[in-house]
Amino acid sequence: MRVKRPAPASSLRGRRRPHVWGLAAGLAALVVAAGLATATAERQYVIAFANLTEEPGVTVEGTGFTGREIRESFVLAARAYPVEMVFYDNQRADERAIQNADAAINRKVDLYIQYHQGAANAAIAEKLKAAGIRILAVNYPVPGAPLYTVDNLAAGRVAGQALAQFALRSWRGQATAAVVVGNLSATGDRVPERAQGVTETLAQRLPSVKVASLDTHGNPAQVAPLIGKFLAAHPSGKLLLAATDDATALAVKSAVEAGGRVHDAAIVSHGVDRSIHGGMNDRKEIDPPNRGSIVIGSVAFYLDRYGYDVLPLAMRMLRGEPLPARVTTRHVLVTAANVFLEYPPYDMN
Amino acid sequence: MKLRAIVAMAAALMVLAAGSAAFAQSDCKKLVPASPWGPNDQTGATNRITPAVTKAGAAEIQEGKVIALSYPLTDGVPLFGSRFTKTILTATSLAPGAAFGENNLTYMEDTWLSQSHVGTHLDGMGHIGRGDCYYNQIAMGKFINQNNMTKLGLEHLKPFATRGVVVDMVKVFQQAGKFKGNSACKKPCLEKGTVITAADIQAGLKMYNVTLREGDVIVIHTGWGDLFEQFPAQNAVYNSGEPGIGKDAAKWLASQKVVAVGSDQWAVEVIPGEDPKEAFVVHQMLLTDNGIHIIENVRTDLIAAEAAATGRATFFFTMTVPKGVGMTGNFVAPEAIR
Description:
The structure holds two protein chains of two kinds. Chain A is α/β, with parallel strands linked by helices.
């Protein structure tokens, strides 16, 4: 934690005859200021994180990340701060979310990080405000609280750019079709914004390319038949495929391979979860030795790093510093060329 | 044929040129500090083991008791991915009629197939760099071939005969009321991801009233080695992370001018690291920037127990490092003599 240094006492240099009382007052001020600084440095905060859900195996935000991964990122990130973390599971239920807020009020936490999608957020905001507890919202707004959130539209644009650049570099002048595949009806997870970002960017960069949509309704088993039909409808030409999550991307790749169209396809995904990247020994799809993959890359959502992104904001709030009303995840394209920069492996030592 | 030869030569030249260009990109003087022992130094922190240091360390031998600081070197210990160990015994002369001479001599020997960084092992200075810049600003790209390094090999190290100091982080964390363990450990161990700070190490030293001296080897007991001892049952847990020193502790240890840092886990530093976008940064701080060796998978429980029983955490540290020419590391068998 950065501690504000006390204002330096006014310099005595230049005074011909420093007054003894002035010197004493200066020293006293220094002592007091140093004391305050020490007190500030030693202040231990209690921060609550009420997670969206920690149901085992359940993924969130239309990605492959689980609530447990998000919580663990807070545990790891908290190591660098003078904070005690208190964790709650909102279980995607308003009633539970309110109970958690009540528990945090009783616990007298200093700050409450609320990750919940539901009508209860307004009531929770009022309760916490009345208790004098500051709130930081994650992914879903809470009245009066700064918001840290994914930016699905921006992520989709990154994916669209990657596909467009690949097509312009590799397939210029060749007939090309594009498709967005995934759980496109998942409005709660704002997956349609992701698809919109892809579609808008492709339309802008490749105006002649028609962009189709294939909705799996969250069922990866639907990818193969949907892609199979799409391939049949486009028996020749090149194919740009945007998957809204990594599991879908891997299923799309399998379907393209089964359809014998590997040399005509390029895939970009969203998420960068552990199903698509790993360490030195995992040999996952996005891997430095696998640069020839038709999966060009995946747009990072970093849900497994939320703690590292959100806790610094929380600390700024606790120090009384102003925060922007909305801070978004920095979505970048992760490819075989930068995957070990973004996610350094440690399984080689 | 002639055309093929020209093409092959051109390709080879292109590869060499590309390689040279890549190496030329790094200015190692900006990326890595110079060695305090001069521009030709390849010995690193073992320069600190002077006769006076060894003699002072030997003063720790009071009972003649030798305590092992290494684990058994055998197949099945925790390793990552495609790493392996394989021992093969040659015992052909034991077959009937295969003995030699009237004196009936028989013999056996081993083939040991393994990477060098397995088991209790030493990380040499050629193990870790920053880009292609290694210890003492050496642009290592110019000094490697397919067999070994032509600089910074283990053959340049001085013998490890100095004072050792054990710090018991399990006790420190227990006494500070911040101990979090892992249920897979049979004996108390710090949980993976636990960051050991300079203040923690200082508390561990204070526990036994020890002040570090230039030339010391510090041995950090985290308890995580208990999982190594259970091999192969807990190999996956052992490799999944570890408690260890963070950047603050590494910086402080470097300032204390120690020769080596050893611990009972596989990387000495905390995993997951403090910053998820950094890889093994403590390795760089110790090895690349300061020439301080890292000893991994050190058996620390015995010496920690000895310190607890006697109230003395210091010992004579002795460790033979094979003169592996151009090698980046090797298995070692450190010992504590009291």
